[in-house]
Amino acid sequence: LNNCSVLHNNRSKQGGAVYSRTTGTLPVRIVMKGDAVIRDNTAIYEGGGIYVLFNIPESVVELYDQALIENNEAQGRGGGIYYEAEATGAPFTIGDGVRITGNRASEGGGLCTRGVSLSSQAQISGNEAQAAGGGLSWAGTQLHISGVVSNNQSVLNGGGLSLNAYRNTIAAVYGTISENTSGSGGGIYFSTAPDATLDLSKAQIRSNSSTGFGGGCFIVGGSQTAMKQTIRLDHTSFLANRAVRDGGGLALSFYTASMHYELTGLNSEFRDNIARGNGGGISSRASAGSDMLL
Predict the structure, then answer these.
(1) Cα gap 104→102, rounded to integer Å
(2) CA nearest to 190, candidates 223, 235, 231
(3) Are residues 283 and 254 in contact, defined by beta-carbon separation less than 8 angstroms?
(4) Strands 42-43 and 217-220
(5) What is the H or E stretch that residue 260 is in?
(6) Exposed (0-12), middle (13-18) or buried (19+): which is 276, by Cβ within 10 Å?
(7) Can you say whether the dihedral through the CA atoms of 170, 163, 221, 199 is positive or negative?
(8) What is the DSSP letter of 180?
């Protein structure tokens, strides 16, 4: 899709505007660039705007320039985009001029990805999810977010981002996460896995809110044994976030006895965060070993 291509007001079971599924042995490349627009499309299940299911890791999806994914809806997952890679690690690249806005779904209002290596500089804003991930619902091993994620909302968790780690995940969020709302993890919800890393270096997490834990960010340990979790803060700002329960800025919850988490905060700032419960800046609940260096 290039320049003035517009896919508008289409409907289907999956992929309201575009459906692409590979079952062969050759890779596929999907590119949306220029001023291409996917708007006002509807899917009964996944992918209100776009649905992609690839079984070859060399297959590629790319969004560039001023591409716009707007006001699409899925009754299932991925209001704007649903992308699943059966062979984990297929790349998904979204450039800094792209906007994903005003989309709706039960999960992943803006986009929902599974098994994809995602790198996004996009503006993800004004999307809604009934369950998790107002802006983005992601599960995988490689993530890089450096754009703006703002004014998204979800009912359960991850108003801006709902991130579900696989083993050895490296999830890097370097952008601005602002004015998102959710039940828990107003800005970011991160569910851990063994030896996973969440890197929030240089991120600005501000003015997010939750009706539960973690106004800015909520990090939750899983049930796996022998688990290590690393959280990196370096020149990270948690500003004016609010939680009805614990952790106005950041809440951590680890109840697996054999889990160890390490939180390192270098040159980072927690300011004007509010929790009605405990820990206006940071709340940590753990039955395991932990190291917190601030």
Answers:
(1) 7
(2) 231
(3) no
(4) unpaired
(5) strand 260-266
(6) exposed
(7) positive
(8) -
For 91-121, the pLDDT digits (tens) are 999 999 999 999 999 999 999 999 999 999 9
Residues in the chain: 294
The residue type found at 153 is: Q
233-286 confidence digits (pLDDT tens): 999 999 999 999 999 999 998 766 555 677 787 889 999 999 999 999 999 887
255-271 core/surface letters (b: 16 or more CB in 10 A; e: else): ebeebbbebebeebebe
* Alpha helix ranges (H) inside 38-88: none
Task: Of 153, 132, 203, give the one whose Cα is nearest residue 173.
Answer: 203
